[in-house]
Amino acid sequence: MTTKNAHYDTISAFIKAMRGSDPDATLYWLAKMIHAGEDPRFIARRIVIHAARTLDWPTRWRWF
To answer: If pLDDT is split at 50, 70 and 90, which confidence band does 54 have?
Structure first.
């Protein structure tokens, strides 16, 4: 597996763990990304995107 594929596989697993409400898996993948040197801004951006989708912000606020 290439480094690029590992990056996308890891972020995918992180997002799936958040969607599945699995806190242990979410923390595992978060720690793995931090340990691998992932940009904290990238991680934060993915968390905010997940939260926005969970709260359905694009639909709820589209009229404003």
So the answer is: confident
Q: What are the angstrom distances between the C-alpha of 56 and each of 13, 39, 44? A: 21, 26, 18
The beta-strand segments (E) located in the chain are none
Q: How many CB atoms lie within 10 A of CB 27?
A: 12
Q: What's the number of CA atoms in the CB half-sphere (13 Å) around residue 7?
A: 8
pLDDT band at 26 (very low <50, low <70, confident <90, very high): very high
* Six token digits for residue 20: 């599945």
Residue 30's contacts (CB-CB under 8 Å, 6 or more residues apart) are 14, 43
17, 25 Cβ separation under 8 angstroms: yes
Q: Which two tokens stand for residue 31?
A: 């720690």
